[in-house]
Amino acid sequence: MLAEVLADLHDESAELDAMVAGLSDVDFARPTPSPGWTIAHQIAHLTWTDSVASLAATDADGFSAVLSAALADPAGFVDRAAAVGLAPPPELLARWRAGRQALASALTAMAPGTRAPWFGVPLSATSMATGRVMETWAHGLDVAEALGVVRRPTARLRHIVWLGARTLPNSFLANGRPVPDEPVRVELVAPDGTQWTFGPPDAPDRVTGPALDFCLLVTQRRHRADLALQATGPVAVQWLDVAQAFAGPPGAGREPAGALS
């Protein structure tokens, strides 16, 4: 399982790498949909997070220092780390590429059954790699939109769907809401037209729609009003308002498209 996720992480990273490899300094300074973040910030953030994930997998005490700094500034540490990581494009790209390789090695070397500390709950190597697929896809989408590139959805979205479904409890907790006892059934149409399902088939609460739209929701790249997702039942309806596949405080999300016109 880990090898499969790492292979998809490699491919997701390579797709983004191909988008940015030939960009000029001016292009790296283009703003992205994330407020205050340029393309350079997006790559610097991925570089930082890969590095921190490697640290978590290899040096729990070293990671605890990073976690303490994050807890001291929960609203600003991500922006600060991205800004600190800025560098001329060749240096930034070299650092990102080396960090990706180091992370794959660190996760592969984790002993089976062990978990690495993280900003939420401790993670297995496979879950850590899955989180990196999610982040790379989401930040890669920001870069693509800054460049006017339309990305083709792939089967790699399944990892993000799985993570999004698994993080329902954290989505409620991060927003100060009680975790519901009722399960939610998730039924999504994959890019190839097949169906991806998660949760009990007899659950009265359910979310249905395109897998791409679900990924856009749980990474907070689109407002739910702009997505073709249907929620049935009170828990499912509430979940679509707070869904986030990432650890940490609740994200700011995106405004509905109509609010920007």
Summarize the topology.
Blueprint: H1 2-20, H2 25-28, H3 39-58, H4 60-72, H5 77-84, H6 89-109, H7 125-147, H8 157-166, H9 168-174, E1 184-189, E2 195-198, E3 205-210, H10 211-218, E4 230-232, H11 234-242
Parallel strand pairs: 1-3
Antiparallel strand pairs: 1-2, 3-4
Helix pairs in contact: 1-6, 1-7, 3-4, 3-5, 3-6, 3-7, 7-8, 8-10
Mean pLDDT: 95
Number of domains: 2
Summed up, the helix count is 11
Q: CATH homologous superfamily name of the largest domain?
A: dinb family like domain
Major sheet characteristics = 4 strands, mixed
Identify the overall geometry. globular
Q: Helix-strand pattern, N to C?
A: HHHHHHHHHEEEHEH
CATH class of the largest domain: Mainly Alpha
Percent of residues in helices: 40-55%
Give the oligomer, counting copies of the same chain as homo and different chains as hetero: single chain
Strands of the widest sheet, in order across it, are 2-1-3-4
CATH architecture term of the largest domain: Up-down Bundle
- Measured on Cα atoms, how large is the radius of gyration? 18 Å
Structural class assignment = alpha+beta
Give the number of DSSP strands. Answer: 4
User: What proportion strand?
Assistant: 5-15%
CATH topology of the largest domain: Four Helix Bundle (Hemerythrin (Met), subunit A)
Task: List the uncertain runs.
Answer: none
- CA-to-CA gap between the ends? 44 Å
